[in-house]
Design goal:
The complex is a heterodimer of chains A (about 260) and B (about 375).
Chain A lengths: L5 E12 L6 E12 L3 E6 L5 H8 L7 E6 L9 H11 E4 L11 H11 L4 H14 L15 H13 L5 E5 L7 H15 L5 E6 L10 E6 L2 E7 L5 E2 L4 E2 L15 H4 L1
Parallel strand pairs in A: 3-7, 3-8, 5-6, 6-7
Antiparallel strand pairs in A: 1-2, 1-4, 8-9, 10-11
Helix pairs in contact in A: 3-4, 3-5, 5-6
Chain B lengths: L1 H10 L1 H31 L2 H4 L6 E4 L15 H7 L4 E16 L4 E9 L10 E5 L9 E5 H7 L10 E4 L2 E10 L9 E5 H8 L8 E6 L5 H12 L2 E4 H15 L2 H30 L1 H10 L3 H35 L11 H27 L10
Parallel strand pairs in B: 3-8, 5-7
Antiparallel strand pairs in B: 1-9, 1-10, 2-3, 2-6, 2-9, 4-7, 5-8, 6-7
Helix pairs in contact in B: 1-11, 2-9, 2-11, 2-12, 9-12, 11-12
The chains are: A alpha/beta (about 260), B alpha+beta (about 375).
Chain lengths: ~260, ~375
Amino acid sequence: MKTENYAVRCQEVTKEFGQGDSRTLVLRGINLEVGFGEITMLVGQSGCGKTTLLSIIAGLLEHSGGELEVLGQRPDCENENDRIVFRRKNLGFVFQQFNLLPALTAAENAAVPLLAAGVSGKQAIKRAIELLETLGMGQRIYSFPNQLSVGQQQRIAFARALIHEPRLIVCDEPTSVLDAESGQAVMQLLASLALRPDRAVIIVTHDDRIFRFGDIIHSMSDGRVTGSNRVKDDQHDPSTGRFILPRQPLPIKIPTTTKKALL
Amino acid sequence: MNFVALRMLIGDRAKYVALIFSIAFASFLISQQASIFAGLMDRTTSQVRDVVDADIWVMDRETQYADEIRAFSDDKLYLVRGVPGVQWAVRLFKGNTTTRSEDGKFRQVILMGLDDATLVGAPRAMLLGHLEDLKRPDAIVIDRAGYEFFFPGQPLQLGRTMEMNDHRAVIAGICEASAPFATFPVVFTRYSQAVNYIGRVRNQLCFILAKPAAGISVQEACRRIEKSTGLRAMTGSEFAWQTISYYIRNTGIPVNFGITITVALIVGSVVAGQTFYIFTLENLKQFGALKAIGVTNRRLVGMIVLQALVVATIGYGFGMALSATFFEVMLHRTATRGIVMLWPTMAGTGVVIFTIVVLASLLSIRKVLVLEPAIVFRS
């Protein structure tokens, strides 16, 4: 398998839990490709396996069968520690409940991936502050999560996901706790910030209000991908093939990171 | 990530305080009870330890501890003096008698009869009067605690008379003596006078105090004395430990203190362990998020150990401060004098507390190690 054009490639990926009579097949042979420079959405009813698939792609769960490549690596060929290091370098996470650390300020929360990578606290916080300022959170960098609105917490979660410039960003229901207006704003922010030719974004959602932000939408049901729809051509920029109508890219510049520190 | 661990710990203020309180409570109870136990055991050897001018104690072969004495005949003294390698040997009487003051107040006292010529075994610290005054007729030296019992609230004064076994005793000196196990007053007098205060019995020589000659080790001198006389000879330290051993084996004291210390250990372990475990459980999703983001298991374990060590250090510090305060207050009471917080107790308590906390954190560490980071995707 070659993944030069794909951030993620799944071939007949299966996942089962339990053994014997309690054995449950959650993923029944997933075939999927995630391209760079695209927002890929996994949609479907609760229990269809989309979060399990996202966990497997993110290296948080091991698949039971099939072949999986993520950014040219095969997670099943690596040990636990290698997978953790791989995640730290290459993946950014946006969780449904944000999972911000309540005892840390906004800047400290955003700096956690850099701290985990061994960047000094001072340098990590400095870069987190720069990033939060570009996200319009400059006035709240010393606020704790419980002092912030849900939308502001989501921005910190984005900052945390982006601060180490990952190549793959995985988002689990990023708009499920937001109202419609905030959801749209968050998606615009995500599209503007996250998408680059060398980066891919995977979003698990069942919020149909944000489907229009996806480049490709994979529908899942009962552990299978039952349909893959690329967004209509007339909704895309003909030069890039990307969906453009609803997006209003923000004038945001991500601070340059020192890759050496992350390595 | 260390500061993240500390912020997580301090962020949950209720559990942080509960952890520190439980560890402080356990530290306080363990150190306080262990120190009191050690102090009580130490008291059983007070009259042995107070004798600093002789290296060897000679006694009946069957003697079990310092307060149970079988006297032997005076000729044994000459036998000991005749043992090669013994520089000198003197008599020591130790017994109990009832003493009455001028106003009729009476109390059982520990009576120490010192060699008339040398006064070997005399108290180390005289508060009033001179040791040489013991050579005057009817002279006694009484310890400060005993004086305060017989003459409460009165200034220290020499020349006051007391009565022992219908014999007159004149206070010629007041001294400091280590507190006896039963808090009896301690009275020193000459050997010849002590046997009169007690009354005549066939044998009155309780102990022989001896010193080895130059170039002869204490152990060698003891061995020679035992071989030559058939008596038992040992160092003051050995005699003190034999006495402590007797009390440990034959009284309920260690059991009582042991129970309290065990309860403190159990309560401390359970409360600290459970609180710490709950703290980890409630932060499991945060640990899961850190794991997903790329924090290694090793670093997560380091974070938990750091949290455990911080609460252990603070809790232990508070516990020791409480314990020190307790003993500082107790030190100023006559009845409890000599019971102090000993540094080995502090060190031992520290080892126990840190072991408890590390063991308690093992449960939390295990929980985090087996944690599936995919938990972060569950709402």
